[in-house]
Amino acid sequence: MNWKKAATILLGCALAGAVLVGCGGQQAAQKDNNQDGKNIVKVGLLTRQNLSEDKLNSLLKEKESSGQAMIVTYYDNLSAMQMALDAGNIQSMRIYKSVASYLTDRNNNLVVKEVADHPMDEFCFGVRKEDEKLQADLNRVIADMKADGTLEKLSKEYVTALKKGEEPPAVTLPFQPGDVPLRIAVTGDLPPLDLVKADGSAAGFNTAILAEIGKRLRCSIEVVQVASGGRAATLTSKKADVVFWTVVPVEKKANNEAVGIKGLFMPRDADVPEGMALTDSYFSDEVVDVAKK
Amino acid sequence: MDTIYQIFIANGAFATICKGLLVTVEISLAALVLGTLLGAVLCFFRMGKNRPMRFLTAGYIALVRGCPVLMLLMLLFYGVLAQSGLAPIVVAILAFALHTAAHVAELFRSSIMATDFGQVEAARTLGFSRIQAFRLVTLPQMMHIARPVYQSTIVNLIQWTSVVGYVTITDLTRVIYNTASRTMQPMITILGGMIIYIAISYCVYGIFAWLEWRDKREVAE
């Protein structure tokens, strides 16, 4: 009798689920795709801290070409975005090419699609505005590393020359007991640029850059791990001295105005919170779409 | 099977997950002890005769219970205690203890209110002191009434700690996210993480079930 009761309840739940999915899931998604006769593309993007999802979508709406509209949904981290893609909440995720390669190497169901007239995002360091000396030091080291080919060598070793399924090698960060270390916040959310290895140690291209900076500035480096959404607060509250950041480049003629970015119409300071200053960029990467095959 | 091995065990992943788990348990346990003690003090003032203290504690409880624990944590870590030099884990324990205390205070209050005050009056008539009446009459009944909700409070507290990644602490959730990003297998990894959290919760349920079983056995004897 109890088994019968349990089976009836389970069947009822399954039926209710099926009805709910039927009402709000697939059909609603199809309806979205055909609103106003336009093909709406739902794209996932990592959260921009200085530009709300609504604002970005309104900017995109202003600039959209006829016949194709894009709706952007923000995700705090890559895992959440990947699950949204798997669940069909978004049709593609717009991420960096290096990260996309790392992802598709490990997931055969996904494919990289080039974004037409794609923008190149720049990677740089974020420091507190008042830390002008640190900003200047970092800029100097970045310029030196660019000039002597170190940046190119590291990007090859840790990003472009990675074999399929291979993780970037571990890096030993300079640390002298008694030193006041330069505390750098990492998220571990963006492999192979920023990841945490199985043994819990920070690794990736960004970490390799850190090790080089530590050597050149002759200072100890301490890695502080924080969730992506907490980076700005970590910096401004002096829990870390440097954070990794990306900036959206604008076309030269746009002169840093709010529109005119290739592909995505996003202001350059879309992800730069108040009180933060950015260094020169040390790396740039294409932005691509990752979608299901 | 190989995927699961690669995600959760290979290259020291298991040890890293265990470290994360230990951090979660440490924060939860310390916050629970501190929060329960503070909650008892709050409850004492909330039910006391001192009117200003009663209002003050009522205000504190309303404020903290209505505030998401992540915001309280970030407010303490990045604001109020930013320059204190306290370790992130200490700030986290403090934040969760403050939050738990508000819930525990209300839990204790409702449990005391659910006991029969006439029994305390009877005990006092029989010559019990106030403390004796509380310890021997109210407390055992109150603990019995509070137990199921207190158990839920503990499980909730363990789940609340999953936000400590925002304040530079690498707990179980953070380790799971790191693993998901590294392996690019978020579904399996998060499912694994969920199973670990459920297992911790069932340990808590198990302890309370054992306590209940022990009580019943004592009554039967």
UniProtKB/TrEMBL annotation, chain A:
Ranges for domain Solute-binding protein family 3/N-terminal come to: 101-159, 182-247
Which InterPro entries does the entry link to? Solute-binding_3/MltF_N (IPR001638)
Q: Which domain of life is it from?
A: Bacteria
Q: Which UniProt keywords apply?
A: Signal
Q: Return the protein name.
A: Polar amino acid transport system substrate-binding protein
Task: List each coiled-coil range.
Answer: none
Q: Does the keyword Signal apply?
A: yes
Q: Which residues form the signal peptide?
A: 1-28
State if Signal is listed as a keyword: yes
UniProt-listed Pfam families: SBP_bac_3
UniProtKB/TrEMBL annotation, chain B:
The residue ranges crossing the membrane are 20-45, 57-80, 86-105, 188-211
Kindly give the CDD domains that the UniProt entry links to this protein.
TM_PBP2
Q: What are this entry's molecular-function GO terms?
A: transmembrane transporter activity
Q: Give start-end ranges for the coiled-coil region(s).
A: none
Work out whether the entry's keyword set contains Membrane: yes
Residues in ABC transmembrane type-1 domain copies: 21-208
Q: Which InterPro entries match?
A: AA_ABC_transptr_permease_3TM, ArtM/GltK/GlnP/TcyL/YhdX-like, MetI-like, MetI-like_sf
Where is it mostly found?
Answer: membrane
Q: Which domain of life is it from?
A: Bacteria
Q: Which keywords are on file for this protein?
A: Amino-acid transport, Cell membrane, Membrane, Transmembrane, Transmembrane helix, Transport
Note the Pfam families from the entry.
BPD_transp_1 (PF00528)
GO terms under cellular component: ATP-binding cassette (ABC) transporter complex
Localization: Cell membrane
Q: Does the keyword Transport apply?
A: yes
Which biological processes are named by the entry's GO terms? Answer: amino acid transport
Gene3D superfamilies on file: MetI-like
Q: Membrane topology type, per the record? A: Multi-pass membrane protein
Concerning NCBIfam families, the annotation shows:
HEQRo_perm_3TM
UniProt similarity note: Belongs to the binding-protein-dependent transport system permease family.
Protein name, as recorded: Polar amino acid transport system permease protein
